[in-house]
């Protein structure tokens, strides 16, 4: 796999109509600087709004993947993104003067060919690979969808589908060498749908840009000649077409025997581009679809953001430690004798954090609390839990070093057992509610798996005052 970032050498454009909206659009790919990522720009709207191709910006997955910010949206981005990922492009600007990219022939090949004409430029910055080092799983029981990412020093995807339809049956495929297989074996795989879906979409006024040249239609029930003509009228096809004898509308010839599942793999590649970084992993997917793909991409992107955050503050990797005391001091403003967290051993962004405080006889508060019978003050246990929660909260906002956590309310505080010298406090704090810059957390502290204290916190996130030179 390529080790440095890549962009294109020259701007290139293509024009056509969108699959679902049927609107005309010219799309221009432009080179981008290192660490830009993939960005869509709506040049037809005031201010040329820019939409990063990341999972947080997904606004609809009903018929393809749509991203947007405010009123600015781009429909059906998955095939364009698959082409970009398949060609290992990291940085690119995609300008559109419409709401949906040209559909081409329903595959990723038209985009691949245009990008190949543009040429490629290797940049100096290293690729920001997300290395999957533990199994990540997504499961949807209702639709029997499973997607799994496994550790692998490379990039592989295997997909299986089973539509309970004689024309398709069970199909599977796998991409094992991105550079050798993508352009010839997967980019040409066209989008497909069932005849019943075409009827439903046509009745809803969708697939306005669909025709028999940019989609494979699987026949899943019979229609008479008049019904076929009426369907053609609704989707704007004037040519005569037949149900076909092979289960494909108009007896359309497939490019691959298992073209539908290859296109599903293509869709998955495009949707996983929304992680925002190239990945090293083996992806296994059973019955994937856009909704599941995007949910999985969000899950992986969260892992990516967390790993970036850890690298930002934790300079030396330590087994079993997310943040050591030096990293904690880069995040929290507290200092001796009021820094009451020694290390963070677990962090699940926006969900849960576990901090550790080793209580020694040298703690300054033991001098007066109590002489001859040292006990850690309950208010300091609360403070230790609050500081641990502060790390979780600060990492939920951009530029945490520029923020402070102010605790506004403490509820249901209970102290169940005394904490004494030699004890090690394990503080678990979970985010229970988040509204703008006010959050709620539930905290518990344990010594030897015994609950010693618990409380609920309300806190606000504020900007840290910047010092200015006089």
From TrEMBL:
Pathway: Glycolipid biosynthesis; lipid IV(A) biosynthesis; lipid IV(A) from (3R)-3-hydroxytetradecanoyl-[acyl-carrier-protein] and UDP-N-acetyl-alpha-D-glucosamine: step 2/6. Its main location: cytoplasm. The active site is at 290 (proton donor), 369. InterPro entries: FabA_FabZ, FabZ, HotDog_dom_sf, Ribosomal_Su5_D2-typ_SF, UDP-acyl_GlcNac_deAcase, UDP-acyl_GlcNac_deAcase_C, UDP-acyl_N-AcGlcN_deAcase_N. SUPFAM superfamilies: Ribosomal protein S5 domain 2-like, Thioesterase/thiol ester dehydrase-isomerase. It is found in: Cytoplasm. One of its GO terms (molecular function) is (3R)-hydroxyacyl-[acyl-carrier-protein] dehydratase activity. Zn(2+) binds at residues 79, 263, 267. The keyword Zinc applies. Keywords: Cytoplasm, Hydrolase, Lipid A biosynthesis, Lipid biosynthesis, Lipid metabolism, Lyase, Metal-binding, Zinc. Its EC number is 4.2.1.59, 3.5.1.108. It catalyses: a UDP-3-O-[(3R)-3-hydroxyacyl]-N-acetyl-alpha-D-glucosamine + H2O = a UDP-3-O-[(3R)-3-hydroxyacyl]-alpha-D-glucosamine + acetate; a (3R)-hydroxyacyl-[ACP] = a (2E)-enoyl-[ACP] + H2O. It comes from the Bacteria. One of its GO terms (cellular component) is cytoplasm. One of its GO terms (biological process) is fatty acid biosynthetic process. Involved in unsaturated fatty acids biosynthesis. Catalyzes the dehydration of short chain beta-hydroxyacyl-ACPs and long chain saturated and unsaturated beta-hydroxyacyl-ACPs. Catalyzes the hydrolysis of UDP-3-O-myristoyl-N-acetylglucosamine to form UDP-3-O-myristoylglucosamine and acetate, the committed step in lipid A biosynthesis. Belongs to the LpxC family. This is Multifunctional fusion protein.
